[in-house]
Design brief:
521 residues, five-stranded mixed β-sheet, Rossmann fold, nine-stranded mixed β-sheet, globular, 25 strands, alpha/beta, Adenine-n6-DNA-methyltransferase TaqI, Chain A, domain 2, single chain, 2 domains
Length: 521
Amino acid sequence: MNNKKHTGSYYTPDYLARFISKRVLAYFGGRQRISILEPSVGDGSFIEELNNSDISIHITGVDIDAVELNFAQKKWKGINSSFVNTDFLLFDTSKKFSAIIGNPPYLKKGLLTKEQIEISKEIHTSEGLSDKSTKNIWTTFVVKSNKLIASNGVLAFVLPSELLQVKFAEEIREYLKNQFQRIEIFTFNELMFECKGQDTIVLFAYKVHTEKGEFFTSIVSKDVLVNENFELKNNDLLVESNVKWTHHFLSNEEIAFLNKLKDSLSKINKFCESKPGIVTAANKFFIINREVEEKYNLASYTKPIVQKGFYVNGSVVFKEKEFKLLEKKYPSRLLQVNNNDVISTNLNEYLSLGIEQAIHERYKCKKRTKWFVIPNISTKPDAFIFKRSHNFPKLLKNNTNAFVTDSAYKVSMKSGFDLNSFIFSFYNSLTLAFTEIDGRYYGGGVLELTPNEFKNLPIPYLSISNKEFEKFVTRFKNKKNIDEVLLVNDGEIFSKVLSLSETEIRKIQQIRKKLVTKRMR
């Protein structure tokens, strides 16, 4: 599969285009003629599949790429067609279409032109939406397409899984619910595109339908989709609650159970302050290894720092010996120059390398008084949690002098609460289940928590002694997997803080495993 990075396009596999086209045409089974718009034609995979219909179709194809448009146009065998070489954001028509299908581009706001950004804002605000939902161009394709659908029409799009889980898409989800009588969401246990990290879903939205509501299904393999061996299930509580649509496989009873427990607990921000780590604006330049430090005699300007979560080992306490092992393998010295520092000849030589690389021209560097003086470097964190993780989020007590980059959040306890107790309490199946529910995941099983998502996690805080914490540290270090730790912690924390039965504890553990399995698939 090819992809056009400059336009954010990922071409649709034939079998997926066939499934979507077939399902849309089936909806119009009693009609003799329909009109279909494809707002981003690409290589024409949908055009090709629509050739096989017994219904008379007038196809309108739009694409910003003239070469691709011409290629797609040649695939259309029908008589009635209109192919327009333009940006869909600029596509102007008063016509309403029976169906709009396709695979909109996935292009973040930062890669759009100023004109595209302004047009996107106008399209969203004209529908009563805010600027917050314009962070990726696919959202604008959805909104504009809705305005062009007939009152009894269908929208069928391949979309990124962002629709189901990220904060900025919440407004789009509500918009879809209000605009369509029936919504169908197909999620997949396999990546449907051969492109790293792009997890996708398929959306069908019907303006009119006899069975109203929001319906979900998870496709475990290509064969299940091709043979239509799936079942769409309604999940009212999921849609009505704040649980992200990604987790449609949770039952209403499971969602209600989790929400009841969450409502009985305080959030993490009651116990600690958490802030993103240091933003260097150019890690490869500002974070150096010992060799570079010695070559330019920069030791007086550097501090120890941890760049990424996978650099640290499996312990829950980060110690000096672990850092020394880390810095033998990875760049771990932060170049911290203060405004009043005397710039040595060697430092000036190193800074000149940054100028050669145009580091000083980067947006965040240009905003600084001196491009090489990194702001907001305060005290080292008492603990830190990495915003991205794999098997489970890593919250570590920091027994070193090391700082962290913004790949992690710095944690410091509020008055009256103990860091050891907080870290111990964090590692329980309920809190980790909500990291799955409130966070978002990417292809490859990467879990990410935004600052607010971390702060708002529920936590059953249990005060423990230093001796108990040391036992926990030993158990954590010697674990075969995180389940071994949770099995012990859950029994102690849930029985004392929430007075849960063994059956209820097992239920929480099973839900967490279900969520993790879905993400890691």
